[in-house]
Amino acid sequence: MIQRIAFVLLLTMLATPLLAQEDDPLGGASRPNPQMVLKRGGRQYKRNHQFALRLIVLDRLDEAEELLQQLLIADPGDPESHYMLGLLYAQQEKTEQAITEIRRAVVLGLPPGRVLAGPRALISELQENAFFDVLRKSLAGVPLHGPLVGNVTDHSAAFWVRTAEADKVIVTLREQADKAAPLHSAGSLSKADDDFTAVVNVDGLKANTVYSYEVTVGNHPAELTDDSPQFQTFPAPGEASKFKLAFGGGAGFVPPHERMWDTIASYHPLALLLLGDNTYIDDPESVEMQQYTYQRRQSRPEYRRLTGRTAVFTIWDDHDFGTNDCWGGPLVDKPAWKRDKAWKVYKQNWPNPGFGGGPEQPGCYYAFSIGDIDFIMLDCRYYRTTAKIDNPSMLGPVQLKWFEEELLKCHGKFKVICSSVPWDFRTKGDSLDTWNGYKEEREKIFRMIEDNNIPGVVLMSADRHRSDAWKIERAGGYPFYEFNSSRLTNQHVHPTMKKAGAIFSYNAKQSFGLVTFDTTLEDPTVMYEVINIDGERIDGLTVKLSELR
Computed from CA positions of residues 211, 214, 215, 219, in that sequence, does the dihedral angle turn out positive or negative? Predict the structure, then answer.
């Protein structure tokens, strides 16, 4: 009897934390704290207009106007300030003043598609204005944002766009080298429920082939020319190949640094991996803030030139999921903003191969391959628990099981595991936000690799505003090399870590990681190079497959 009572008490104790999380409106998540970064007097450009927008959404319009007028005194020619002032006047039903400010923003260089994109809830009062009619006519037949190429394989590709109104979207393409080749075409519909975005999937393509394409909206005919954008399909699964990809994170909106996207394009990567903080939202309960931060980036011509020609794959981190150093908690549907706002808006803005386990198990995790290189992209925020409990989890049990299954299916020469936060414990001092706060779970992952004798594992990550290389020594197997880079466009910078043990560490300018795989060699190699915003090679590291066995 005593043993039975003890057993019941044990079950009750084990169940108590989960029951407490079910009763908690936050579901064990950290409380969003947008006011920590969205505040008056910030020195980062990317935050100024976000703070103004937060005041507008909170109906603190007088404060917002005061802030914007101060910004315009400091920089009268900033189109972003004029645009935000126009949004403010629209909320005050001052239509004439709103149109004047928005028109001025366009004259100063704000892309016209940005105006029509919204956020829609903030421009609803202006939609019938003649100026908006003029903009719609000038952009008839073309997307407001995109095309952005994603989910490329050896035989298919996806094309993401945003349109002015709900409409049909057609992608037409053919082999770039053969103008007599038959045309491929596919279509989809943009919908208001998806913030007027659409993803067009095209299949039946040839492997490792360059295609020219055009995207049209409505009934406008496509015309393929020598100036049409191009993209390249991937090598066939398992095929030995040599290719480059670019990766990074930390992409706050800073107009003088948006040229980074052209710098990346000049290296002609086959793919671009954005590993978190791809935009800085920091207000997960505001759909308008999420839409605004995505749209200002998607409107930039430099970004559109790169992403219209390069296959893009993404995961999120704290600033594009929640707020700084946040954890989402173990539950699927609590807090409510996780699935109904952050995940929904994220899905609307990226054409990834997958989004976790779908609505029943949301997230941003998925896997894909390029030739004989396998990639596993992890979601380090949605199911994360606080690190200050026993046996904390960054991935959650469902994702961890999925990861193990995916890893065992990988047969490529190299297996690249991408995390939005650094793997090496030395990267952020004593912070528990990296894998340093989740040591046991990291050990499970590493032991999983070693127990199954899986060769060729390489780690990639973002989060720290610099570019590093690390080597994690292991007693039970080969060392893990980590390539870390997360200062694509950010002003804010973190100290270099050479003294902490990094192989190299760079923070003098914005930078990205350029990774070259060559599996055509007898001993295949992966080379990681740091390239700064001016296109200069800063440092590099080459690892042979024979070192990863």
Answer: negative
- In the chain, what are the domain boundaries? 34-138, 155-231, 243-512+533-547
* Residue 534 C-beta-side C-alpha neighbours within 13 Å: 4
**Domain 243-512+533-547 sits in CATH 3.60.21.70:** yes
Please tell me the total number of residues recorded for the chain in this structure.
549
CATH class of 155-231: mainly beta
The single-letter DSSP state of residue 487 is B
Tokens representing residue 459 in the block: 């780690």
Distances (CA, A) of 160 to 84, 147, 194: 26, 5, 12
Other Cβ atoms less than 10 A from the Cβ of 429: the count is 11
Distance set, CA 247 to CA 315, 421, 459 (Å) = 11, 14, 12
What CATH number does the domain located at 34-138 have?
A: 1.25.40.10
Peptide bond into 76 cis (omega under 30): no
Model pLDDT for residues 475-515, shown as the tens digit of each residue: 999 999 999 999 999 999 999 999 999 999 999 999 999 99
Binning pLDDT at 50, 70 and 90, where does residue 11 land? very low
Q: Of 479, 413, 401, which is closest to residue 444 (Cα–Cα)?
A: 401
Tokens (6 digits) for 171: 């992608």
- As a whole number of angstroms, the distance between CA 162 and CA 198 comes to 6
